[in-house]
Task: structure prediction
Amino acid sequence: MSWVLLRDLLSGVNKYSTGIGRIWVAVVFLFRLLVYVAAAENIWKHEHDEFECNIKQPGCENVCFDHFFPVSHIRLWALQLIMVSTPSLLVVFHVAYRENREKHHNQKLYKNPGKTDGGLLCTYLISLILKTGLEIFFLVLFYKLYNGFKIPRLVKCNIKPCPNTVDCYISKPTEKMIFLYFLVATSCLCIVLNVSELSYLVFKYSIKCYLKRHVKNEQ
Result:
């Protein structure tokens, strides 16, 4: 999978982000995207082939693997990474709309098309809410699908066509567990950063509105 488009998207969003937003971009790019491409993807690359059960009953191993791993960890993380980055497109599209509007009218309509104020501020806040919601959704989904954030060494399976309860072994469980905790931790960090940035922008805008109203009343 090529991640060039996602990298370019994150680079473009970085221009319109606050200081906290730039930290979020750095965390996503360095601790999620690069770790995924450089290491995590290879660890789960042959997870089905390396899943072994102590029986050769045709179909048993495939059914057990599908039961305990309904969705591949690595594909779910890839989908999560794409989905939580997509709301940032709203900001990029809004800035592009402002720039095209100025070209169409052939005059300066905004002090700075990329400045987060007015409608662009609302778009930015919506993108933060969506990113936070998607992060939480995927964490809950992962927890529900795999019964917690853990990689067991041994799973017991008694699903047909298995004739009885069989032992199935997952390859490299310790290594996978380390990366699992790392990716969950970075996801939680991104949630904290998004909530912090959202709170900062709401507080900043509230103070700005209060000062404007105060000055107007004084006049």
